[in-house]
């Protein structure tokens, strides 16, 4: 019973957050990129969360953060989960050398430190939100592939899926047929990738990949921590805490959902 | 299940925080000063093995090396002073310099430092080019006797005493003569010098340096026994906790707070450090002077200083030279913040928005550029982006760490860049960074150079070469003023601001800090002049 | 004689040493209903899987309509469609959450994509004894075991096969449902000329449906012949033993039931 409530609450949180992301321009008090206000103001009716060191309205930044942070998280998770799942199913479907090659590739991406992948990417990429998404996807798919591959290899031995093989179904037919078997694992992986991407996004901007000016929760946390007066006085309450709370709530809500999928 | 979920949540929160603080290395080694041992602890970054060729080519790398290796002359708070050379003469044509060495200087392996070592060092550095040392003007180095060296120049070089004699590290001949690849020379022998400190330990991974006093230092016995430089992540905290005795790597705001607190003494001096916008002249429109001028008009430098750097800097001067310098010339073209004027200049240069997308176009190409900045200058980047958007130029900001930005600029792999560097003070030879490759005299450390096509002006080149030969200071000033006028008019770079440097320290333990006039060697801005460790007073 | 499927010297070893099939040679006549009998673990399922291509023989070959069949990947769609396989477990072979119509749609799609003539699902269901359009909308999970197995059969009929291999397809059904399946097989054999190879332990089936019997013992065919001869005058010692054990099990069951009915 309580589990059901937790699940419903998690859905409610995620949906609310997504709609804030979609509609924030209508509720945001100011343009988030505007830094013409007096810096480091305490909260007031004009600026409910005060302003930052540069003079941005913090509430507007927090709201704008919903869109970019969530877009990056969802898109990166979608791409990495899709690539990982397709490769995993290819392992089960083609077996033999295809399986060997993909497994080796997966291991390579898991062994090679993410920083190497990132630096490689940073040299080639132009900065921007798209590249943040691609970069996160690039080093995330391997973990998805590894988990889903194990599930696919069991699933493909099931008789209902073997029927499709006997009719010479393509890998897509098999993937669709297997979907019901893979879905809980895929959903779980998707949600884990989402929460990971939400946390990673801010780090990437400082590797020359993302747009360092994109207004995200990660950037807010970073600038707040860079402000030397953050813990003297109450500035952390309205400067640092709100974005951290948003990231945590998002991640926790997603993990509640992921847990339910895993159990299904 | 609940427990697992809770653990997971806790872990996520920790990860979130940890990532934001960006790889916080917590190797705060506690060094407790023994009763007898006078240990001075300062913050520093990891700058490589402090031998001549293995240390970082940035200014602070030179500084760490200078603790070990002496030079003929040196500088203190009032300017040039004798060091290994107790006195020197110059011929009337300013081309032959004779240095008389002190007789009591010794390397830390016990061998005396003689004229042969001086000659050897000059010859060795000429044979093995070094990013900090430029010796093209030298014709010949001769030893007249064990303690006299004669250096003959091909042509007059005005900044010789400071930028050559005060810069060439004197290395022991008996060690270095067998070294073929100095870039790989990182044995204990590579750090044998004659300076006030000797290296006791260098932790390559942690970036910690432990120096011990050279008790036989000819200039005087150091007042400290040990100097520990460690790369603390949070200098403020370390200073407050008593893990450091002096902290350099503080934010300006932090230092002001410390000063107000009264527990620590804070001194502030010219940083000899400049932040500037680099143009890649391989991009056609960047070669148009009006374009560069428009950009400078469009930037509200005062607002950048106030907001982005929060007053830890002073506003940049179009003529590039620091206003505190004796070579500074005031009456150059000024660029007050004026976006309308900027737009006018772009219009006149034929860069108009032809397709109404809000971005100006030039030869059918939109004025849209990648703006490379160091990761500590995101605020500056955000403001620049807005200023330029207001005049119809779009920039996409790419932030990377200093090392990567340095190398991208050096290789010319950038469009517009915002970076900064030291080596900015002292002799106007620093303007060599705007002289073209045709000028064979004068040089500035390679870390300040940019790759790809550079700005060039024949008149600038000629004047620059002339002033280096000018020994009459008043006449030279006029020529240097002229160079500043050209820079202000042409803007080969946009000088944004100069950093102030600050040192916060525990005055109850050690004092005697001073700011070196024009910086040590070729203008390394610092309070850590090695003479502080000899002249300072331990309490 | 018109030979539909022929096994020539099939050998199959697992892990290099365990012999599962030992030089199996057999010929299946077009238009007949052949049975494959023998003890569990005797290689019957392996032989079926080799015929369908799900398993690869260690040596020997399979001829279908006179030409050699390779592995599943090497077979043409027409070969796959002409040689249909019905799985033993009707609960595993069909997706619980699907409807009957979507199950039957899969082979329809496959055939139409490859330009093969197919039997409309409605007609296939009628042949399988599941008349009524309403049946198409039913969910698989609402069906009984017998109904599911008949849906499986209908699914096989859609590709208009020449041969259906059924691996103990009645083992999990009650006697009534099994008999019904037997009657349908017989009818399909007579009306459509469809050939069958049936693996079974069911004596009823052997007597009433089958016309030819192969006996597989320890991976080798020990006896083959028309039903009447094999059942009445088995030549191989193993066949006799097997027939006796088959009757004993049924008889034993009855005795036990009697025993239970006796008053204490």
From TrEMBL, chain A:
Membrane topology: Multi-pass membrane protein
Keywords, in A-Z order: Cell membrane, Membrane, Transmembrane, Transmembrane helix, Transport
Keyword Cell membrane: yes
Predominant localisation class: membrane
Similarity field: Belongs to the binding-protein-dependent transport system permease family.
PANTHER family: D,D-DIPEPTIDE TRANSPORT SYSTEM PERMEASE PROTEIN DDPC-RELATED, OLIGOPEPTIDE TRANSPORT SYSTEM PERMEASE PROTEIN APPC
Protein's UniProt name: Glutathione transport system permease protein GsiD
Organism of origin: Pelotomaculum propionicicum
Taxonomic lineage: Bacteria, Bacillati, Bacillota, Clostridia, Eubacteriales
TrEMBL record, chain B:
Stored SUPFAM superfamilies: Periplasmic binding protein-like II
Pfam families in the cross-refs: SBP_bac_5
Keyword Acetylation found: no
Origin superkingdom: Bacteria
Signal peptide: 1-22
Coiled coil (residue ranges): none
Transmembrane regions listed in the UniProt entry: none
Keyword Signal among UniProt keywords: yes
Biological process (GO), any one: peptide transport
One cellular-component annotation, GO: ATP-binding cassette (ABC) transporter complex
Protein name in the entry: Periplasmic dipeptide transport protein
Source organism of this protein record: Pelotomaculum propionicicum
UniProtKB/TrEMBL annotation, chain C:
SUPFAM superfamilies attached to this UniProt entry: P-loop containing nucleoside triphosphate hydrolases
Gene designation per UniProt: oppF_1
GO molecular function: ATP binding; ATP hydrolysis activity
Signal peptide limits: none
Official protein name in the record: Oligopeptide transport ATP-binding protein OppF
Annotated ABC transporter domain residues: 5-243
PANTHER family: TRANSPORT ATP-BINDING PROTEIN
Keywords, comma-separated and alphabetical: ATP-binding, Nucleotide-binding, Transport
Entry's Gene Ontology BP terms: transmembrane transport
InterPro entries: AAA+_ATPase, ABC_transp_ATP-bind, ABC_transporter-like_ATP-bd, ABC_transporter-like_CS, P-loop_NTPase
């Amino acid at each position: 019973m309580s589990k059901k409530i937790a699940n419903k609450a998690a859905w409610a949180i995620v949906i609310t957050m997504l709609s804030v992301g979609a509609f924030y321009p209508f509720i945001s008090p100011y343009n988030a990129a505007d830094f013409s206000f007096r810096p480091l103001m305490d909260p007031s009716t004009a600026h409910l969360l005060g302003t930052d060191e540069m003079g941005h309205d913090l509430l507007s930044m927090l709201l704008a953060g919903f869109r970019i942070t969530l877009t990056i998280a969802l898109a990166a998770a979608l791409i990495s989960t899709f690539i990982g799942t397709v490769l995993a199913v290819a392992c089960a479907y083609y077996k033999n050398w295809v399986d060997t090659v993909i497994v080796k590739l997966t291991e390579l991406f898991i062994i090679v430190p993410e920083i190497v992948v990132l630096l490689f990417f940073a040299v080639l990429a132009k900065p921007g939100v798209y590249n943040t998404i691609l970069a996160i996807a690039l080093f995330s798919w391997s973990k998805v592939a590894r988990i889903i591959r194990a599930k696919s290899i069991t699933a493909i031995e099931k008789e209902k899926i073997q029927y499709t093989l006997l009719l010479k179904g393509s890998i897509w037919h098999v993937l669709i047929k297997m979907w019901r078997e893979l879905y809980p694992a895929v959903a779980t992986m998707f949600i884990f990738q989402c929460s990971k991407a939400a946390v990673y996004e801010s780090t990437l901007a400082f590797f020359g990949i993302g747009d360092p000016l994109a207004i995200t929760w990660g950037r807010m946390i970073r600038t707040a921590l860079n402000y030397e007066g953050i813990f003297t006085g109450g500035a952390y309450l309205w400067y640092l805490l709100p974005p951290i709370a948003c990231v945590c709530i998002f991640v926790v809500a997603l993990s509640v959902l992921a847990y339910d999928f895993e159990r299904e | 299940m609940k427990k697992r979920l809770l653990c997971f949540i806790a872990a996520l929160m920790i990860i979130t925080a940890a990532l934001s603080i960006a790889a916080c290395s917590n190797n705060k080694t506690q060094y407790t000063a023994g009763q007898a041992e006078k240990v001075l602890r300062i913050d520093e970054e990891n700058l490589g093995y402090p031998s001549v060729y293995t240390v970082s080519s940035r200014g602070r790398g030179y500084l760490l090396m200078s603790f070990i290796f002496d030079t003929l002359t040196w500088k203190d708070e009032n300017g040039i002073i004798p060091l290994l050379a107790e006195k020197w003469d110059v011929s009337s044509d300013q081309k032959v310099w004779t240095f008389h060495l002190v007789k009591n200087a010794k390397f830390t392996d016990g061998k005396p430092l003689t004229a042969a070592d001086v000659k050897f060092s000059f010859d060795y550095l000429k044979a093995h080019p070094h990013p900090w040392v430029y010796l093209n003007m030298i014709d010949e180095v001769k030893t007249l006797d064990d303690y006299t060296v004669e250096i003959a120049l091909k042509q007059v070089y005005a900044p010789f005493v400071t930028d050559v004699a005060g810069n060439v590290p004197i290395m022991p001949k008996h060690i270095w003569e067998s070294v073929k690849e100095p870039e790989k020379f990182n044995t204990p022998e590579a750090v044998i010098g004659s300076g006030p400190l000797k290296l006791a330990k260098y932790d390559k991974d942690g970036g910690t340096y432990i120096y011990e006093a050279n008790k036989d230092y000819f200039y005087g016995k150091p007042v400290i026994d040990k100097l520990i430089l460690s790369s603390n992540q949070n200098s403020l905290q370390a200073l407050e906790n008593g893990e450091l005795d002096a902290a350099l790597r503080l934010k300006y705001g932090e230092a002001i707070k410390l000063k107000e607190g009264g527990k620590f003494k804070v001194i502030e001096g010219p940083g000899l450090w400049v932040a500037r916008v680099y143009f890649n002249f391989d991009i056609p429109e960047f070669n148009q002077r009006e374009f560069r001028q428009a950009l400078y008009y469009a930037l509200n430098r005062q607002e950048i200083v106030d907001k982005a750097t929060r007053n830890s800097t002073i506003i940049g001067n179009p003529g590039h030279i620091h206003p505190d310098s004796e070579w500074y010339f005031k009456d150059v073209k000024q660029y007050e913040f004026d976006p309308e004027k900027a737009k006018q200049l772009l219009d006149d240069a034929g860069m108009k928005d032809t397709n109404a997308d809000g971005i100006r176009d030039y030869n059918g190409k939109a004025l849209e550029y990648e703006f490379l900045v160091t990761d500590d200058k995101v605020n500056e980047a955000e403001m620049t982006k807005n200023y330029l958007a207001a005049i119809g130029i779009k920039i996409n900001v790419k932030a990377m760490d200093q090392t990567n930005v340095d190398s991208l600029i050096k290789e010319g792999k950038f469009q517009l860049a915002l970076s900064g560097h030291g080596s900015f003070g002292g002799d106007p030879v620093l303007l060599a960074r705007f002289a073209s490759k045709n000028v064979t005299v004068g040089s500035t450390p390679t870390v300040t150079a940019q790759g790809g096509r550079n700005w060039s002006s024949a008149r600038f080149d000629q004047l620059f070469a002339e002033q280096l030969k000018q020994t009459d200071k008043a006449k030279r000033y006029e020529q240097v003023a002229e160079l500043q006028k050209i820079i202000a008019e042409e803007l080969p770079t946009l000088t944004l601001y100069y950093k102030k440097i600050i040192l916060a320290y525990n005055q109850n333990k050690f004092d005697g800090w001073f700011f070196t006039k024009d910086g040590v060697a070729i203008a390394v801005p610092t309070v850590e002049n090695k003479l502080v460790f000899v002249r300072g007073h331990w309490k | 004689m018109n030979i539909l499927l022929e096994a020539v010297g099939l050998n199959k070893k697992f892990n290099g040493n365990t012999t599962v099939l030992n030089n199996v040679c057999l010929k299946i006549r077009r238009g007949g209903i052949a049975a494959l009998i023998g003890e569990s673990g005797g290689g019957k399922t392996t032989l079926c899987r080799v015929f369908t291509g799900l398993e690869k023989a260690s040596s020997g070959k399979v001829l279908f309509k006179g030409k050699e069949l390779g592995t599943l990947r090497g077979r043409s769609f027409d070969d796959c469609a002409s040689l249909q396989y019905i799985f033993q477990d009707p609960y595993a072979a069909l997706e619980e959450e699907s409807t009957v119509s979507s199950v039957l749609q899969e082979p329809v799609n496959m055939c139409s994509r490859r330009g093969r003539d197919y039997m409309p699902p409605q007609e296939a269901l009628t042949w399988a004894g599941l008349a009524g359009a309403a049946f198409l909308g039913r969910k698989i999970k609402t069906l009984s075991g017998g109904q599911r197995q008949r849906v499986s059969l209908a699914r096989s009929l859609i590709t208009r096969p020449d041969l259906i291999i059924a691996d103990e397809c009645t083992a999990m059904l009650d006697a009534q449902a099994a008999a019904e399946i037997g009657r349908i097989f017989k009818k399909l054999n007579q009306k459509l000329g469809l050939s069958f190879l049936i693996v079974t332990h069911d004596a009823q089936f052997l007597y009433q449906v089958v016309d030819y019997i192969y006996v597989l013992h320890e991976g080798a065919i020990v006896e083959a012949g028309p039903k009447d001869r094999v059942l009445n005058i088995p030549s191989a010692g193993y066949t006799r033993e097997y027939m006796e054990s088959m009757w004993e099990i049924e008889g034993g069951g009855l005795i036990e039931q009697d025993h239970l009915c006796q008053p204490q």
